[in-house]
Amino acid sequence: MPGPARRAGVTPGADPLWPQASPGEHRRRVPTLGVTMQAPSVFAHAEQEGFEQVAFCHHAPSGLRAIVAVHSTALGPAVGGTRFLPYATEADALADVCRLARGMTYKHAVSGLDAGGGKAVIIGDPATTRSEALIRAYARFIDGLAGRYLTAEDVGTTQADMDLIRRETPYVTGVSESLGGSGDPSPATAWGVRCALDAVAERLWGTADLGGRHVVVSGVGKVGSALVDHLIEAGARVTIADVSPAAIAAVRVRHPDVTVVDPAEAHRTECDVFSPCALGGVLSGVTIPELHCAAVCGSANNQLTTSTDGQAIVDRGVLYAPDYVVNAGGVINIAEERHPSGAPYDRDRAHARVAGIADTLRTVLARADADGIPPGEAADRTAEDRLAAISAVARLRGSPRPSA
């Protein structure tokens, strides 16, 4: 997980969404677009992790319950996806959104992007809770944050949701190409993992050639299945795992020669590279001793369960490619929607920039060697150095322009 946060404090959301609470009132609920918050746990959590803003939204008519966490805007407006999941408790949702938002700060920083770290969650089962009214109410809430946070697609949300959000606010990325956006970010994320594997292969075997190398891809959803396509094209031998039989079947239609293992056995499978591409937490004190691979390089977020797991992987003799370096292809892709020149999104330009992930990973691995630290910590330090440097630049103020 990314290192200590640099910025502190929590501020309420935009004024229309943040009514004043009465003295001693821990919870306030208002009709239409309003706020539900439990002050002691919220403020303690946000202060400990150094967040700029944590905003809550409740809209009773549509059933919307959402949280937006803005970790840092030191490099630019906070950008991060919206997850739509049936969290067991509101506390679980808060912990997840804050963890993910902080990770986005580090991902954007290490990738050289002019964007800050943010994330949002909608609490509920998208299969039963999603509606046009709910998504549009959420979009109004995002619009009320006045550009401090730009949302995007994530687990449980779809491109159709992003297109619907665009009808209410400009503060959304990854909309359909017909609306001027970059579309589905999954192909760019998968391409970024493939490029990261070049750097891994060079480090381990002295060549980027993956021909004959055995890669286990755990999770063959949109990103994992696209990665399998790239690996097969590169001549790799591929094993796949997924909890969804339909996802397995879809890959095998295109690539009947891939082998399949149970998801619980994927990390134990002897291979050259283990590539986790599903949900996080796959590398822990239990699973790391069971690894039988030369490297771990995949798209899943938050692969390390604890702060000590990075050193444990080093001790195991396995090369770990930090997850938020490897999986940055999606955010690099959508950043091209906001090109500094004002040019429209161009897929070839975006994918050429995504290919730079290989160089970023080479830099991180070289720093890990030089500093004698795990690669994850090297990635953190690289991100933190950039955050500190640009924050210092931001304190400069130009002279007032003369009046006409």
Query: Within the CATH hierarchy, at the fold level, what is the topology of the largest domain?
Result: Rossmann fold
Structural class by secondary-structure content: alpha/beta
Shape: globular
In this structure, how is the largest beta sheet organized?
6 strands, mixed
Mean pLDDT over the residues:
87
Number of helices: 14
| Percentage of residues in helical conformation | 25-40%
- What Rg, in angstroms, do the CA atoms define? 21 Å
Any idea what the CATH superfamily of the largest domain is called? NAD(P)-binding Rossmann-like Domain
SSE string, helix = H, strand = E? HEEEEHEHHEHHEHEHEEEHEHHHHH
The number of strands is 12
Name of the top-level CATH class of the largest domain: Alpha Beta
CATH architecture of the largest domain: 3-Layer(aba) Sandwich
As for the number of domains, it is 2
